[in-house]
Amino acid sequence: MMILDGIRVLDFTQYLAGPTVTRLMAEMGAEIIKVEHAPGGDPARGLPFMKDRRSGYFVQQNRGKRSLCLDLSKPESLAILHDLVARCDVLVENYGPGVMARRGLDYAGVSKLNPRMVMASISAFGRSGPLAHRTGYDWIAQAYAGFMHVTGPRDGKPHPVGVGMADVGSGVHAFSAIGYALFHRERTGRGQYLDISMVDSLFHMHEVNVQAISLGNGWQPGRMGSNHELVAPIGVFKGPEGYLVIMALQLQWPNLCQAMNRPDFEHDPRFAEPGPRAANQDALNPQIEAWLATFESDAAALARLEEFRVPCAPVISPFDAPNHPYFAERGTLRTVQDPFLGDFVMPGFPLKFSEQPEVPTLVAPLLGEHNVHVLGEVLGYPPERLAALAAAGVTHQGDR
């Protein structure tokens, strides 16, 4: 038995933030009914990179889901969706503001059809508040949440983080909230509404920046570049071949001095205590890089640091990750099979459950591939009704 066996999810999501939620739930055994709008379906079906007209982006986010493709402008489609709400446990959506309400599928409408429904909405700014009417995407959330302000060269312009952190982060937040809402439902019998904001999900990641301001010490967060402004040595250093990260807090500072064969640094008044060491890192950091340059390879430098228990890491490109044993042995990278893409390398399932040690074999759906299954088996519509809906253009099927 998988952890989410028996949980049926009605999935009104597209692109990345919402599909992240249902992707994780599919890996745990939930039945995901992905509602796609005819004729094109989820716009991610056309995102790069493509092979044989199949999008790797779409496949990664939608394996294991069942595609129900409807013309949502037709009243028959809305009747179908209302029938499905009554037979599902969870509804997830990341449409623009007002879209679900216009279809009678906001939480007020959904809870009347199914009081046990757990509904999660993911949006840039939440469904309440002064910006709830605005549409936003990952970089918009990064800008509002202060991430861009603190990312980039110290004297340069703000930079975005190079991955979909707002999308995936808010999706993981919604995924966790759904789990607790289902737990609450088991105890009370009541569903509830979850309003997940991408900005909120990012903003609470500030570990120092906000509280430091409120303490009134005059410090203001800004872009630090590749080295931490307040603690040293913490940052990115040029190694013999590439770049290395070294993080030596006060407890590890003597270890780094020993590794470098520089015991004099440990008690040097410029470096002995955290405050002066951070203030004088322009003198310290070149010494560290000069020492790293004496090694034949990055691996040799890392081995020396690890010998003295100094936290360190290589700066790994995603291109190089398959060559590192960590990613394969942990399942952080995995190879899956797709009927069109063939063997396909993608990130692995990030959660490790002792009661669900294996991940299922899943395939991303063709557009409308499961119309008959969903309407026939889940809703019990007879074959003649299925044929009539298809003939009237209510249901739609495409290819990849």
Search tags:
formyl-coa transferase, domain 3; 400 residues; alpha/beta; Rossmann fold; six-stranded parallel sheet; three-stranded antiparallel sheet; elongated; single chain
Give an overview of the whole structure:
- The chain has a six-stranded parallel β-sheet, with helices on both faces. The chain has a three-stranded antiparallel β-sheet with strand order 9-10-11, covered by helices on one side. Strands 3-4 form a two-stranded antiparallel sheet.
- The protein has two domains: 8-204 and 327-391, Crotonobetainyl-coa:carnitine coa-transferase, domain 1 (Rossmann fold); 234-238 and 243-314, formyl-coa transferase, domain 3.
- With 400 residues, it is of the alpha/beta class.
- The chain has 17 helices and 13 strands.
- The longest helix is centred in the middle third of the chain and has 24 residues, at 165-188.
- Helix 1 (17-27) crosses helix 7.
- The two termini are 31 Å apart.
Q: How many H/I helices? A: 17
Question: What is the total domain count?
Answer: 2
Mean pLDDT: 96
SSE order in H/E notation? EHEEEHEHEHHEHHEHHEEHHHHHEHEEHH
Strand order of the largest sheet: 5-2-1-6-7-8
In this structure, how is the largest beta sheet organized? 6 strands, parallel
- Percent of residues in helices comes to 25-40%
Shape: elongated
Give the terminus-to-terminus CA distance: 31 Å
Radius of gyration: 26 Å
- Per CATH, what is the topology of the largest domain? Rossmann fold
- Strands, count: 13
Strand-residue proportion: 15-25%
User: Helix/strand-derived class?
Assistant: alpha/beta
Name of the CATH first level of the largest domain: Alpha Beta
Please name the fourth-level CATH homologous superfamily of the largest domain. Answer: Crotonobetainyl-coa:carnitine coa-transferase, domain 1
Low-confidence spans: pLDDT under 50, at least 5 residues? none
CATH architecture field of the largest domain:
3-Layer(aba) Sandwich
